[in-house]
Specification:
Blueprint (H helix, E strand, L loop, with lengths): L13 H17 L6 H16 L8 H19 L9 E6 L5 H13 L4 E6 L8 H8 L15 H6 L2 E4 L13 E4 L10 H22 L6
Helix pairs in contact: 1-2, 1-3, 2-3, 4-7, 5-7
InterPro entries: Phosphatase-like_N, Ptyr_pPase, Ptyr_pPase_sf
Organism: Herbihabitans rhizosphaerae
Keywords: Arsenical resistance
Amino acid sequence: MTEPDTEDRRTLPLDQHYALRVAALQLRDEFAGVFGPETIERFLHASYDQFASRSTVSNFLPLLAERFARQRLRALARVEGRHQDGKPTVLFLCVHNAGRSQMALGFLQHLAGDRAVAWSGGSEPGHEINPSAIAAMAERGIDISGEFPKPWTDEIVRAADVVVSMGCGDACPVFPGKRYLDWTLDDPAGKTVEDVRPVRDEIERRVRELLAELGVPAAI
């Protein structure tokens, strides 16, 4: 890997600037032969702007931008036929992407492993994952503390085989040819771990049912 470029049109703190340049180089290596540097940098900086516009803490912005840009680029590769692995892709959507959709994401990743792809997003992303949701999932041996609320984008929705809505209503995007499911579940926002457990268990039941419908073996 070469040293990060020294020129950048963006006015950013030096540490943020450097971290974004490193992230850009890492993404270039990962998507070499799939996307050019201009596309990669455009997605990276757009992702950074999305988080910077609503973040009160800037320390982790480059990392969040890199992770989200990677997801968006993988989705775009699927949409454009540049990457086809045959794995079913499920997108879980709710309002804040802080509770229900994150628990569903955690269950699908845990139960399906590398046999399916799981993404999540929110119509009005929050600032952090619901602590009660994190604790409730930890009781099941699933760690979602490293996840982060994020929006959805067109390429992510278009790349999904199944879009599961959990309370985002009319804000949820609709694209022709997609399979849509609407899961009515209580919002865990502001609830205790005890109150979140029934929601967690119902999400697990539905995720297992969905995996069975998709023909994906689920872990016990």
